[in-house]
Amino acid sequence: MKIVLQHLTKKFPARGSVRGRKNREDVIAVNDFDFEIPDGKLIGLLGPSGCGKSTALNLICGLLKPTEGKIFFGEDDVTGLPPENRGVGMVFQNYALYPHLTVEKNIQFPLENLKGADKLSKEEISKRVLEAAKLVQIDHLLERKPNELSGGQQQRVAIARALVKLPRVLLLDEPLSNLDARLRLQTREEIRRIQQETQITTIFVTHDQDEAMSISDMIVVMKDGIVQQIGKPQNVYDDPVNLFVAKFLGTPPINVFSGEVKKEQLYIGSEAVLSTPGVSDQPVHVGIRPEGFLLKEDGPLSCDLVRLEVMGRDVSIVSTHEKSQNVTIRSIIDADEGKSLPTGKVHFGLKPAKVFLFCTDTEER
Ligand code: ADP
Q: Which positions fall inside the ABC transporter domain (predicted)?
């Protein structure tokens, strides 16, 4: 089921505003979302806290009404429909399980109050519950109560409960944030597996770029209610549209310098570090991915070594670039390449595909 958002906007009135007086500015939590989510894909909605991710999800599931715009599931306009008539399954970060009910009863809860043609027989309910429990691999835990389960198992119950009504769309709001690091990793792979098995169009909200990049078919990067970029994770990483997106994706984060283009050469400090054919003279922000540096004896960027960390395949080099006020550079090179690792001074060349130039007047769209 594809999801189409047309000029979807949600404004909240400014807090503490007084009637009759000019209000403080409204918060535009979701600002003119206008894009399509293809059928059967997993989409990561990604951005810092407060950028409007949950609001967008709540609009799509029907818990909030948009100020403007429309939402379609396939050809159906669902904008005016209440959540129960949209065919969405929702999973929240706190699982929201009923503590007094067994796992089985928790999963079957959404099926109990179906009316009319949707009403299911007892046998059908048991069958559906077992199918959902098997899908998330908790069918051996059906008799337990939530407090007898680990966090990861509780989240699986929540996912089974969201899937048991065979929703058209699955919405996950920060589903991993209450889990410890190891379980987070396991559960995110699990979510990917379940999504691929069921082929349900799924929206996954997170502030964690690693999480979104690793399991999504497509990511939507947001800031202050505005979509900054949409694309395949690798494409967005390789070709960020602005400095905000460049900085938001990647661990360790991108290195940022002030630079200047003069006569088709990029200068950082007084050194020409890269030729930039076709770029007109102007000041720029320069973003260089950690893997964009090459150890090179006559390389134009000369730095002071601060720390070397050999991490199996990779060597992480932390150094400072004295000509630009000792800006710290975090670079990663292949262990092979670093056979004679630097001591004291480090000289870098750059890989052009890993260097991005951004105009200096704005960080975002
Ligand atoms: P995120 O999920 O990315 O952390 P939210 O969607 O929760 O962001 O919030 C986006 C913006 O909308 C924030 O500035 C938040 O304070 C504001 N907001 C969210 N819900 C309400 C509400 N019910 N009333 C007023 N402002 C709200």
A: 3-249
